[in-house]
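Duplicate of #3305? Posting structure anyway:
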């Protein structure tokens, strides 16, 4: 299992939202690249970046911050938020992003996902953000008619190899991941499932191991100090 420290960018700063609410944000640093460097120094092997402005604007916004992160760390980064077109993907891959995460655009067009997978293969992932079991889009401000597991199966048929599965109800709450939902997703598809949302202590990471997820994204808990990255690395794959 891979541990992904999260760096959420809003207005060029490193922030955390609670349950995806833009009006409930906490700033944890003015320079995201310094935060990225910190997680790399502490042992992270990959980073998860979110362009929160991009998610609302429908196009990548925090490109300067992304460039600075890639320039200053030697570990791969994946990024989501506002990726809607092939031009967006070309730009991000060109900057050095190792994996681009599609969200709203994947829900709105299976054909687009198929096109991106054909061009970039495993460099494409799909974010499935579930609200009451249904996929939320547009920065979590809308809920689609797709059930999370059914949508994941559709993505698998297209050729997507990796999904980032977020339970919105647990995101930023530090109350523990939705283990049942994660296990159900892993058992329903033959894909890499990266868990996101709810980690509030190192024990939560340990509890995710039996679910079979290939990775876990840790956000707020790292910034509040509830979880120390070094305490989770014993569960990280070599």
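Output from current build:
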């Amino acid at each position: 299992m891979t541990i992904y420290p999260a760096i959420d960018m809003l207005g060029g700063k490193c922030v955390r939202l609670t349950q995806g609410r833009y009006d409930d944000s906490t700033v944890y640093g003015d320079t995201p690249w310094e935060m990225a460097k910190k997680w790399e120094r502490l042992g992270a092997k990959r980073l998860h970046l979110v362009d929160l402005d991009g998610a609302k604007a429908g196009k990548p916004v925090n490109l300067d911050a992304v460039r600075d992160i890639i320039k200053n760390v030697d570990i791969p980064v994946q990024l989501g938020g506002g990726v809607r077109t092939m031009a967006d993907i070309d730009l991000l891959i060109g900057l050095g992003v190792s994996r681009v995460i599609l969200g709203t655009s994947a829900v709105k067009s299976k054909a687009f996902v198929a096109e991106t997978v054909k061009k970039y293969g495993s460099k494409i992932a799909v974010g499935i953000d579930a609200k009451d079991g249904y996929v939320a889009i547009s920065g979590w401000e809308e809920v689609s008619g797709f059930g999370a597991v059914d949508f994941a199966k559709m993505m698998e048929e297209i050729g997507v190899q990796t999904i980032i599965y977020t339970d919105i109800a647990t995101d930023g709450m530090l109350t523990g991941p939705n283990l049942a939902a994660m296990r159900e997703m892993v058992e329903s598809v033959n894909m890499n499932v990266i868990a996101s949302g709810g980690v509030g202590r190192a024990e939560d990471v340990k509890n995710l191991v039996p679910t079979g997820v290939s990775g876990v994204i840790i956000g707020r808990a790292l910034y509040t100090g509830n979880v120390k990255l070094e305490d989770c690395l014993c569960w990280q794959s070599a």
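Confirmed duplicate; merging threads. The CA atoms of residues 36 and 69 lie 6 Å apart. The mean pLDDT is 92.
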